[in-house]
Amino acid sequence: MIPNQWYAVMKSDEVPRDKPLGVARLGEKLVFWRDRQGQIVCQRDFCPHRGAALSVGKVLGDALECPFHGFRYDAEGRCQLIPANGRDAPISKEVRLINYPTYEAHGFIFIWWGEPHGELPAPRFFDDLNSDFSYATARVLWSTHYSRAIENQLDVAHLPFVHYNTIGRGGRTLVDGPLMEWLDRDRFRLYVFNRVDDGSKPLKPEELTRPDVPFHLEFIFPNLWQNHIDDRVRIIVAFAPVDDQHTILYLRFYQSFMRVPVLRQVVNRLAMPFNLRILHQDQRVVETELPKQTALKIGEKLIQADRPIVAYRARRQELLDEATRV
Ligand code: FES
Ligand SMILES: [Fe+2]
Fold it and tell me: Could you report the per-residue pLDDT of 96-110, keeping only the tens digit for each?
């Protein structure tokens, strides 16, 4: 995982108001809960007393109670009560939970993975998804590292093979470019120019100009991807790292063409089966890729069409290097 980043790790509605939720994310066992104000709290799911999981404990107002001996912890991770010692007994500062900064927005819960340094910026998101849009979300577990899952969404050469009977119909096997455009150091767009092989050479990215159509792909480091289908329809995927071998994909269908309250949810839900079918086509192949985790140099025989994947790996490596230099 790249340290010092906000990661979208789950949907807001997965964490209830009145009880803790234990999940594995970023290679750790974490507990999520909400305080009286509904503010989300994320801590390591490990009681420092004798190692029980707090996620099978209770939320009591603004505190989390361990199920084993009732130690109570506040939202900052400080122990407030050790029942066996009596309610007025002093408590060592050493008895505390490891806390992760959280941010809730866009129906996602983000956690800051790394060193908390002062005021953290808000996590980035796709700014043009305004309140005209509504969405439905599905979650799917893949047995691979999140880098493989992300690279698949930046891979335009797989379309006529993996998706030969869905979005890759038409046998457009020849890949011009693709053309990448960096919006800032952690966000880029991808324009796709696949075509039927007529015997000509694929054009290089430098030979292409940005097409005058709304369709493009967009990626925001470390784990958000958008298929900008047109001005009113989008697919978003948040790749929540579980551990080095597993990733949960939160697939969202967004649209703004149907705004009537009940009907818009019907439209959103109806779009899910097709989008999930495409994702399952990807999953079948991506889960077989080895190694499960990618890096800049892993001996793969890459081609021109893989340039966005190389760019992703290069920036990922830079961020990893920056984080270890700090
Ligand atoms: S293990 Fe948590 S209170 Fe004892
Ligand atoms: Fe795909």
Answer: 999 999 999 999 999
